[in-house]
## 1
Amino acid sequence: MTSEKTPGKANPSYAPRSGSGLSQLTRRSLLGLTGLAVAGATVGAWPRLTGSDIPGRGSKALNIAILGTAADAAARQGLVQAFTAAHPDIPVRLQAIQGADWKDFFSKILTMAAAGTPPDVVYVATEGAQLFADKLAEPLDDYVRRDAADMRDYFDDVHPSLLEAFMYQGNLYQLPLDWNAANMYLNTTTFAQAGLDRPREDWTQDDFSAILRALRKARPADFTPYYWTNRLFGGVVPWLYANNTSFLTETKAPGGDWLWDRFYPTDPARATRGGGYQWLSPNAEDGRVIETFDYLRELVAEGLGVRPEAGGGNALVGLFGNNRIGTTPAGGYWAQGLHDAGMTPDQFDVQFFPRWRSQRHQFGAAGYAIMRTAKDKDAAWEWVKFCSSREAMQLAIPKPNTTPTRRSMVNESFYAATGPKHWKVFYDTLDRFPTSGPIPAPPQQAAVETALMKNVSTAVSGSSADVRAAMGTLQRDLELALRRNS
Amino acid sequence: MITTAAAPRRTAQTAAARRPLIERWLATIFLAPTVLGMALFTFLPIIGSLVLAFFRWDIISAPQFVGFANFASLAQDPTVRVSFLNTIVFVVVAVTLQLGIALGLASMLQPRMPSWLRVFLRSTFFFPLVLSAASVSIFMRYMFNEQFGVVNWLLSLIGIPAVPWLTSPVASAAVVVLVYVWQNFGFSFLLFLGALTNIPKELHEAANLDGATGWKQFSNVTLPLISPTVLVASVMAIISALQVFDQPYVLTNGGPGDSTRTAVMVIFESAFQQLEFGEASAIGLVLTVLILAVTALQFRLSRRFVFYQ
């Protein structure tokens, strides 16, 4: 037999090699290369694997979280630049956190806090004000006292009710920068079709019902005279406030004199001011609460009002813009929304909420809260103080997609492009009705809101007798909710 | 000569002896990332959740040991009870419909159907599964809107008055089931289609010769032969349905009242909205036990109806 082995060469331990390049690699080499590749990829991706490539992580910049998209953060770059010009020693980083609503946003902030990466400053609305004050935020009292001279201009321009909404157990936690009351938006096209004029300022709940019936008569189909949503803002609460009641018993904490005496000594409602709102017990079975729910149930049953779960948000703007809605409660933020939806200033108007036993309005506000965990609280305060200045607020709120808390900014030119004609209603809501209050938002707000929303829908769907049963359930659910994390 | 001849033999023996050790090391190295990942991201959270169920923790303050208090409060919370009841009803209705529709459609695609049509239908039925459940639910929410939705508009064309799809307890539950089944039956459908395709033709031909046609052939030949797939499909469908969240959350937010609130929704609300992480863990634990119990029961019962060739 002739051997095919080439003299002087070892026998191949596996199949003969052919070709060149990768096909000539031994298994050992291949494994080695794979190992190297894995090691290289790991080293290359290390910043991603450890999260150190997340913008702002580990940086000394003041980290400020807002609810919104990256575009919203970009829109505030002018504000950041102005602050940096005034405070070059304080680097600032705006972080937009997306969420469907405030509840969603607060959950994400809390998760960041639990993960050990909380922002230094957070934009917080009334919905979360007491939650943050109770668990996360730093009181501003000492800073406000220290810089009282600088703050005078702000307090002179801002209604005290807005400040009171951000007091908690005697301390001030936020300086409100934007706010919205639940006013009644009127679709003037549909009003004209029904032969209706803008109602008087002191219109009543009965006037409101009569207007809805007239609107329905003029547009029997494919139209909703009153559109409301199942939310804390603009839902059942404005009606409860108008009927001089609420689903939670409202009291005020003691304290706060340091603020009222110093900055608001001539406030007509000074005697009623305290150290912040308290919602400590449920009030769902109160006769007026039942009466209010029954009124809304009647509107739904009569076909004058939509069921409250039917929609909201952008859909609502679109439907109003298409003249398929006659009236709806909303705040100053809607002026820009309707303008963007194509409505001209004369196609919609606004009026105070109708009067019932009172004409008390509900409102919601928002401002920056300094976190207790903030790296540099003094720097954080400089940001909060700067944002309350007129210059900063004009940069932050260039158009009426909300209502500025500075009265002087709510003027003719601000609403020139969008309307409505009676834009004065927005700030007059506080000036004319000083007992107007914030939406009920105790530290357990999320549980309270869930309890309210689910029972609103049940209460307005059945008969009058069902309302009392639904309020019994709401009372029980609220008791459970208020016990949470207390 | 002796030396040169013996050396390779020894080397070969040593290599053979070493191979299992090297292979063991290699296996360990290759499995390590997966095992480590599972340990870090699956087992550790499970243990953490188990422990957390006995604590009260709001994510910010230090956890507080409360023993069985979280479980006791669950038993007293009517929302939790209703949500579990809703979940069980949902599972029964949705899984029955999902498997029934999937099996029915898969059987219809079996007879002599042009291959292009089969491919088209297969893709069509599977397509909803690749869509995001949240997006689908938002879309459906507009479709089922009582005032302005396209569904009520279509019904109005034939004189049917507007149905409160998302605002009445029964109708909203029906919509949630409908949307869930529409989106999920495609997976069971593919499983059944594969199983039906694998049945040898001779068995059906033999059944034909014996005079079995239609339902008799289906129940006596087809169903027993695909019974292992039915078991797998039903186990997966039940586990998935017990964890339903997206559709009721987006479509109805659990309402009206608690009529469409499910167990996972309550876990989400307790943990991420109400900051009761201990209570949420306790609900999660109860749900896990329920899923394990139902799965074990299915496998136990399967001995009676699953036929392995």
Note: Residues 1-6 of chain B have pLDDT under 50 and may be disordered.
## 2
Amino acid sequence: MEGKIIYFDHAATTPLKKEVLDEMMPYLTEQYGNPSTIYKLGREAKRAVELARERVAKALNADIQEIYFTSGGTESDNWALKGVAFANRDKGKHIITTTIEHHAVLHPLKYLEGLGFEVTYVPVEPDGIIDPQKIKEAIRNDTILISVMLANNEIGTIQPVKEIAKIAKEKGIVIHTDAVQAVGQIPVDVKDLGVDLLSLSAHKFYGPKGVGALYIKKGTKIHPFSHGGAQERNRRAGTENVAGIVGLGKAIELATQNLSEYAAKLQKLRDKLIDGVLSKIDYVRLNGDRYKRLPNNANFSFEFIEGESLLLMLDMKGIAASSGSACTSGSLDPSHVLLAIGLEHEVAHGSLRITLGEDNTEEDIDYLLEVLPEIVSRLREMSPLYESVKKGGK
Amino acid sequence: MYSEKVLDHFMNPRNVGEIENADGVAQVGNPKCGDIMKMYLKIENGIIVDAKFKTFGCGAAVATSSIATEMVKGKTIEEALQITNKAVAEALDGLPANKLHCSVLAEEAIKAAIEDYLSKQKSKNTN
């Protein structure tokens, strides 16, 4: 393993696939036309953008006209929430979401609260999964929008969005799902889910950074994201990121082609990792439901140690991973997701998120299982919290 | 993000451990915030002859604990009380802005351990 980097942070980003880059390259170099122009160079760029739209639509079982390109998941979420809220404010001002959404959902909702909208944050169960009944109970006469993520970015839990969408439809409420972590990991079919809006981001499934898409079901009342030119059918002005869009199209095509094999491979590795960590290390817990989780996600909390220290020591061993500790986020509070599932602050500080990707092997898991217990033990020997446990028992 | 010196003190922390029957002991910080430092001092004739620590916290928390124990050793109580968080951070070739609170914790740990020593001395003298 000397000198090798083992990358276990695929929920943060994935490496760009060579096939994807190959399709993008001409649009970064000789095919530089603006898709809004009428001459050949522009027409060629426009054709490439529309082929990508077709690929995204096919991957999601949507219609081509329902796919809008954006700068990524954050923009898609912002557009969905603000666009629907502004377009429907004559109907009501109430929005429902969950306590474990990504900041790309929570922060625009805070912004909307500042403008007079009211938001209900429905808590999740200790297994990290939302109870649809609780969403139903939160609905008011003036509820205009429900936003529930399809899979959580930290603990990987898969949410019952289909059931929640059914409840929303019965009440005539618009439903959005942030599927940024789900696309490329589990099957995502907008018609089967029954959602009105769905956000995705290319760099989570081996595509380029800075490009994403928003699915907007035909007939959904929504304001444009930006005003300017006529791009994206007058809903999202601005010259298209042609190469990025081409990359997104290719990446989603590849990601959905062999999804079941990919997921089966990662699930096997994930289970080996979870079993190994739980058996080799004490005072550890798996965060999120054991089975209703993304095939590539394992999230642990190690008591008496802090996550950033763990990440630094793993980095010294050539392992890249993630933590929900406050120190890695620059705030004083650890991950809101870990707190939402009931972890005490000090336990949440000691979390480790491992997210697997297609290049990871059994050998990588074996190596992690070899070095992790040593690191945890070393940090615990340094911890005054562990010292008191050793002396007093727990 | 971290200087080489911070990483060195994190990976090879000096003076980790406890001192049996330490003359001054103090624990500062809060597990809720993710940082706790426990400092042990051995003091002879007003001079800190040994210092050890245990820390629950991030890389900067461990590194500041390590350098702080190095800085106090051999100093008189009065000199050790003059050590500021700025001095601790400078000794590590700087800390990122969002980690400066760790150096504050190190300063507090030194002061609190000395206070513990002084209060023990006071009660000894009273008895």
Note: The first strand of chain B starts at residue 24 and ends at 30.
